[in-house]
Design brief:
Chain lengths: 413, 275
């Protein structure tokens, strides 16, 4: 069994390796906003942030994998900016199991997941990750809970990504409560639009509560208008996976060993996106890869006011019925996808999940993580998978921030 | 393993007393680094799992060797800070990659990720099955997070020192300097008096540069030690191998290149002369 997986993986590894060099550098460049002035119709487009801001980078990786009660506590110290999120992050892989143990009645279907988010070979950290199990609170429609996973990859500065991290799940929750019987598509589109508005209102000077962060652009207009973020959000319910995406972060489902992308990257040269941009009166210019107005290398994003209406914040939403063959869901920023194919990522993740059922490797006398019951070991599996994927991205010379979330979808493990 | 001289520490004491140059010290230091590299490489091959503790003294010794380097550098910097900032003992290749007279601290993480990546690609399948490799491919979640945090902190400090360096460098055109330059151009002073005024004007600038260099070197050494502290002894050995190999080889390539360029210049001049 393991041997078979190995073979499959090897092949995938080689295939993806041949694809990498061009796409890797191209995508990497894609995340940088180009610095040149551009005048379109009657509006002068402000030069994007020069990157010489005085403020230092914020830390953005924070996960709140705890029950709603404690969530507010933790969020408060995050906002104060004094807490080292690393310490929290450290707890991430450990906490779910612990939380599930202590309060099983509140979170009966506690998801198993692993998360890794590192600066990698970049000097700035612009990725942000949000994980909120049972984020919607007690909901008669979903007694077993709905879980929220979001990966945001900022560009220009980090504050749009951090604002998404801090607010998106709350907005989605509000929309769900207000939605009544409206569809998931509608709910998620509304949520993304609201998120975009919130980010936009920050940048137009009406400082809201979301602007507490001190980022290098200092939330000054006009630079602030040239800041945005990707957003890939997965809401996992007992029977469905709802993925909403803006930009080039990606969600991939691993089902019975097969990699199924649940989002399609918004690249400006995607034929339908190209059409949409041109019909809106915009242009895609090849300047170090295809870019909207020659500036932004993705066609949808939260923020980026100055590129509206060509760059939109409306997500594409996919709804996938969960099956017994589902193994895991991977959400990641392009720091991973630029250098690791969907197939390889799935192969690595499922291998980690499958092999973590009490392994007794002969070479692991000094193992620092103990593998106990099957339930907990799969948590370790997710955590190992996210770490290994991150390390693999770094090994393959990813030059971007790397953020990876792996969610275990197997039933009854 | 023999501990015969010249060792950097022995040499350090000796050289300072004898008024020797930093260049001589550096050459001895490199010889010793080469020896350490050999020891590290053979240790990485020989030591089995049961014997990992035995690597600690070796790691400690190698890190101490780096410490000696910075002690020596600080001593010589008090004598001639400018020489330390444009080190003649480095090749022009190395010069091109210097940050305030030495290696850039954030480079330590690229070194780690590169070496870790090479080892990871080699053992990916073992790792996927949950096996432990023990080398740098096996960085745990906790280690990766510590490295990431240290990297962010290091970049922040690196930027702070860079800012301070900028402020210091800008003082080269402050009023006193400009005034003095104009005065000397107009020749109002007697030559002797002029020189003493120049010395007096440059002294605080050099002191300022010395402070910056001290901060930069401190950050370099701190970063190295903190990375080593995060790693297991086996991982530290692999890391130190990569560090030493990169340092020694770049030095070697640079020196060869400089020699080749010098050779070409000479040949060219001879050809011109004879033409």
């Amino acid at each position: 069994m393991a041997g078979m997986c190995c073979e499959v993986n090897l092949a995938e590894t080689e295939t993806s390796a041949t694809v990498q060099p061009s796409s890797r550098s191209a995508r990497r460049r894609g995340m940088e906003i180009h610095q040149f002035k551009f005048v379109h119709s009657d509006s002068a487009v402000a030069p994007p942030h020069s990157g010489s801001g005085k403020r230092k980078r914020q830390k953005f990786d924070a996960v709140v994998p705890v029950l709603p009660l404690r969530e507010s506590e933790i969020r408060r110290d995050q906002l104060s900016g004094e807490v080292e999120p690393e310490a929290k992050q450290l707890r991430v892989s450990v906490q779910p199991a612990a939380a599930a143990e202590t309060k099983p009645e509140v979170a009966p279907d506690y998801p198993k997941f692993g998360m890794t988010s590192v600066c990698g070979r970049r000097r700035d950290m612009e990725d942000a990750v949000a994980i909120h199990p049972s984020f919607s609170g007690p909901n008669p429609n979903f007694p077993d809970g709905m879980h929220f996973f979001g990966v945001y990859d900022g560009h220009g500065c980090s504050h749009v990504a951090t604002t998404c991290r801090d607010r998106m799940h709350e907005i989605v929750k509000e929309e769900l409560e207000a939605a009544g019987s409206s569809s998931w598509e509608r709910t998620m589109c509304e949520s993304f639009l609201k998120m975009d508005k919130e980010v936009g209102s920050c940048s137009s000077g009406r400082v809201g509560s979301c602007c507490a962060s001190a980022c290098r652009c200092e939330l000054q207009t006009p630079q602030c208008d040239a800041v945005g973020s990707t957003a890939v959000v997965a809401v996992v319910t007992p029977d469905k996976i709802i993925v909403s995406n803006c930009g080039d972060s990606r969600a991939v489902l691993c089902r019975n060993g097969v990699a199924i992308p649940l989002s399609v990257d918004h690249k400006p040269d995607r034929p339908d996106e190209l059409n949409r941009i041109q019909e809106a009166g915009g242009r895609v210019i090849f300047w170090d890869g295809p870019r909207v107005l020659g500036v932004l290398a993705m066609s949808r994003a939260i923020g980026d006011n100055y590129l509206k209406p060509f760059v939109i914040s409306e997500p594409e939403v996919t709804i996938t019925e969960r099956t017994a063959e589902d193994e895991c869901l991977i959400l990641a920023s392009d720091g991973l996808w630029d250098v690791v194919s969907n197939e390889t990522a799935c192969g690595v993740a499922r291998m980690c999940l499958q092999s973590r059922k009490p392994p007794s490797p002969p070479r692991s006398p000094g193992s620092d993580m103990t593998v106990t019951a099957a339930g907990e070991s799969s948590d370790k599996g997710c955590s190992d998978a996210s770490i290994l994927l991150t390390k693999l991205a770094l090994a393959r010379h990813s030059t971007d921030n790397v953020s990876v979330v792996v969610v275990d979808l197997r039933r009854g493990c | 393993m023999s501990t015969s001289p010249p060792q950097s520490l022995t040499y350090l004491t000796h050289a300072i007393n004898e008024g020797d140059t930093f260049e001589r010290f550096f050459e001895c230091w490199l010889v010793e680094q080469n020896k350490h590299l050999d020891e590290l490489v053979s240790a990485s091959k020989e030591v089995d799992a049961a014997d990992r503790g035995a690597l600690r003294p070796l790691v400690k010794r190698v890190v101490q060797h780096y410490e000696h380097y910075y002690v020596a550098k600080a001593r010589w910097a008090t004598a001639d800070i400018l020489a330390m900032l444009s080190p003649s003992w480095r090749s022009s290749l190395e010069d091109a990659f210097l940050w305030i007279g030495g290696w850039r601290p954030s480079m330590a993480f690229h070194l780690l990720y590169s070496k870790s990546g090479l080892q990871l690609e080699a053992r990916l399948h073992e790792l996927m099955q949950g096996l432990r490799t023990g080398d740098l491919s096996d960085l745990s979640a906790a280690q990766l997070q510590q490295v990431d945090a240290l990297q962010k902190e290091t970049i922040r400090k690196e930027q702070e020192v860079t800012e301070k360096q900028a402020e210091q460098q800008e003082t080269v055109a402050d009023t006193s300097m400009v005034e003095l330059a104009l005065a000397m151009t107009e020749g109002v002073d007697a030559p002797d008096e002029g020189q003493s005024r120049v010395d007096a004007a440059l002294a605080p600038k050099q002191d300022g540069l010395a402070v910056i260099l001290r901060m930069a070197d401190q950050l370099r050494l701190d970063t190295l030690k903190k990375v080593i502290d995060i790693l297991t002894p086996t991982q530290a050995v692999h890391y130190l191998i990569a560090a030493a190999a990169l340092h020694l080889r770049i030095h070697e390539w640079g020196k060869k290149r400089d020699a080749r360029v010098a050779q070409n210049v000479t040949t060219h001049n001879i050809e011109e002369d004879s033409a």
